Amino acid sequence: MQTKLTIRMDDRLIRQAKEVARKRGKSLSRIVAGYFSSLEKETEAPLSQPIPLTPIVRSLKGVLKGVKVDKETFHRYLEKKYR
User: Who's near 20: CB < 8 A, 6+ residues apart?
Assistant: First the structure.
């Protein structure tokens, strides 16, 4: 069963979405339904699979291992940096 859904968005965003739909040869409703379906699949995915790290995050992984930085130390660092 299909049900009507009303959403409110900025005019500019609606125009852009309609243009994308036109270029893809699909209705805007079909594109939105596809997006909602992808959200459903996303929530069904097992959480045990790790999210791949980007190269920058991978390069930073572990650089602070064993370093103790408390709030006070961080505040002193910021005060010194922005004098």
Answer: 31
